[in-house]
Write a structure and sequence with these properties.
This protein has about 325 residues and is of the alpha+beta class. The protein contains twelve helices and twelve strands. The chain has a domain of about 100 residues: Enolase-like, domain 1 (2-Layer Sandwich), CATH 3.30.390. The protein is about 30% helix and about 20% strand. Strands 4-5-8-6-7 form a five-stranded antiparallel beta sheet. Helix 10 runs antiparallel to helix 11. The longest helix is centred in the last third of the chain and has 18 residues. The chain is globular and about 60 Å long. The N and C termini lie far apart (about 45 Å). The structure holds flavin-adenine dinucleotide (FAD) and iron/sulfur cluster. Iron/sulfur cluster binds next to loops.
Amino acid sequence: MRPFAYERADAAGAAATLVAERPDAAYFAGGTNLVDLMKLGVTSPGLLVDVSRLPYGEIEHRDDGGVLIGATVRNAELAGDRGIRERFPLLSQALLAGASGQLRSVATTAGNLLQRTRCVYFQDVSKPCNKREPGSGCPAIEGAHRELGVLGTSEHCVATHPSDMAVALVALDAVAHVRSAAGATRVVPVEELYLLPGATPQRETVLERGDLITAVELPPPPSGAAMRYRKVRDRWSYAFALVSVAVLVRVADDGTLDEVRIALGGMAPRPWRARAAEELLRAQRPTEELARAAAEAELAAARPLPENTFKLELARDLIVAEIRGLVAGEENR
Ligand SMILES: Cc1cc2nc3c(=O)[nH]c(=O)nc-3n(C[C@H](O)[C@H](O)[C@H](O)COP(=O)(O)OP(=O)(O)OC[C@H]3O[C@@H](n4cnc5c(N)ncnc54)[C@H](O)[C@@H]3O)c2cc1C
Ligand code: SF4
C-alpha cells in the first residue's frame, strides 16, 4: 500500500495549481481507470485532486444544434440524454458499447478521453514497456499483440487507445475545451488531442501539466445525416474493441455522398479518422465496390503484426457493411 493525499477541488484554478505545483499529483474524476492503475502499481500519484465536483456537470444543447458536454458529465448520463440519443445516436451507441452500467454511472467525459491503453505489458509492472519506462523495450511486438494496433504505431509501441467514446467524438468533429494551469483556455480537436507514439510513446497527448479538460463540444450535426457506431469484441460486455467503426453519411438527391465521416477504434494509438477512405467516397455513389476500395486505401498504410493481421479484413468489412446499412436506411440495427 502506497500512501497518497486526497483533495477535493471546488474551483478549477485551485485544482490546476495543486496539480501544476506537484509533479506527482493527478486529477481524479470517476477513478475507474486511475485507481485500477494505482492498484497495479503502474502509476503512484502522491496527491489525487478530485475534480468530479467542479461545475462541469451539465449537458447544454445549444440553439444552433451544437452541444457543450461538461467534463464531469457521467458516461451513463450522456448516453441516456434524449438530445444525444436523437441527434447524435452514434455517441450514445459508443458509450453503451463500453464498460458496464456500473462503470458508466461513475466514469466521466474527460476521464474517458484520457483513459490509458489496455496493453497487458503496460499493466504488468514486472514487464518492460516503453510507455511506462522509456527505453525498456516493447515486448508486445514479439509477444501478445492480438488486440493491439496496426495503424500509426511505431517500433517503440503498438498500443491502441481504448476509448469507444473518443472514436465517436472524432467522427462528430468534436473539440475539447482545455484550461491551462495559468488559467488560459484553448480548444483542441479531439482527433488532435492524442499523439502518435513515434520514439516517445510515454507522451500520449498534447496536454501539459496542469491542463484541465473542462468540456467537450459537438458542432451541430449535418442535417439529414445518418450515423452509427459498431463495435466488434471478443464478448458482449466488459470487452474493449478489437475493431470499431463510427460512420456518418448523408446522401444527396442525386445519390452521391455529400457528407462522409469514418473513424476507427481498436486499430491505432488514437481514434483513427479514415480520411483517405472519406476522400474516395466523397461526392461519389457509395457502391459496395467503392466502399471496399475506400477501406482498402485507408488500410494500405497499416503495419499489422502476425496475430493482428485479421484486423485489416475486419475493419474493411465493417466499413463496407456500415456504409451499406446507413445508405439503405438501417439506422437502428
Ligand atoms: C472492466 C472495465 C471495462 C471497461 N470497458 C471499456 C470499454 O469497453 N470501452 C471504453 O471506452 N472504456 C472502457 N472502460 C474504461 C472506462 O470507460 C474508463 O475507466 C472511464 O471512462 C474513465 O473515466 P473516469 O472518470 O473514471 O477517469 P479517471 O480514472 O478518474 O481518470 C482517467 C485519467 O483522466 C485524467 N482526468 C480525469 N479528468 C480530467 C480532466 N477533467 N482534465 C484532465 N485530466 C483528467 C486523470 O488524471 C486520469 O489520468 C472499462 C473500464 C473497466 C474497469
Ligand atoms: S505496445 Fe506500448 S504499451 Fe504495450 S508493451 Fe509496447 S510500449 Fe508498452
